């Protein structure tokens, strides 16, 4: 199992949004949110505009981050967001099988 910290989730979203909008990751700001009614989301600021990402978008960013930074191919159903002291992502993968 791999656990991504809140900072890594923010990095994943920054890299994902920067690639999609063709801007630098440093030009992306992210705030992770959790609400009892709507669940996990993130508010993202790029180019002076605000946008909300739902949990599915956050997981997509995490999947791409795992592939690019850790060379781990994870599927959507293997990633779970969790809230304790901060938001983390638990990735249920067998690291021995993902190492190439």
Automatic annotation (TrEMBL):
<dbReference type="InterPro" id="IPR020516">
    <property type="entry name" value="Uncharacterised_YxcD"/>
</dbReference>
<dbReference type="Pfam" id="PF10850">
    <property type="entry name" value="DUF2653"/>
</dbReference>
<protein>
    <submittedName>
        <fullName>YxcD family protein</fullName>
    </submittedName>
</protein>
């Amino acid at each position: 199992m791999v656990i991504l910290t809140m900072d890594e989730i923010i990095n994943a979203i920054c890299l994902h949004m920067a690639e999609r909008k063709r801007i630098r990751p440093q030009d992306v700001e992210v705030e992770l949110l959790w609400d009892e009614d709507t669940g996990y989301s993130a508010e993202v600021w790029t180019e002076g505009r605000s946008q909300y990402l739902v949990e599915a978008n956050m997981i997509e960013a995490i999947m791409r981050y795992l592939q690019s930074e850790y060379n781990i191919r994870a599927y959507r159903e293997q990633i779970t967001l969790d809230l304790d002291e901060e938001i983390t992502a638990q990735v249920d993968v067998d690291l021995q099988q993902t190492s190439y």
